[in-house]
Amino acid sequence: MKLLWVGIAFVVVLAKWVNGFVEFSLNETEISLMEGFGVSKAGYNPLMVGLTLIHGAGAKGAVCLDGTLPGYHWHRGYGSGANNWLIQLEGGGWCSNVRNCVYRKKTRRGSSTYMEKLIPFTGILSEKAQENPDFYNWNRVKLRYCDGASFTGDSEHKGAQLQFRGERIWWAAMEDLMSKGMRNARQTLLSGCSAGGLASILHCDDFKSLFSGNTRVKCLSDAGLFLDAFVVRVDVSGGRTLRNLYSGVVGLQGVGKSLPRICTNHLDPTSCFFPQNLIASVKTPLFILNAAYDSWQIQSSLAPPSADPHGFWHECRLNHAKCSSTQIHFLQGFRNQMLKVISRFSRSRQNGLFINSCFAHCQTERQDTWFADDSPVIRNKPIALAVGDWYFDRAAVKDIDCPYPCDNTCHNLVFR
Question: pTM surpassing 0.85?
Answer without folding.
Answer: yes
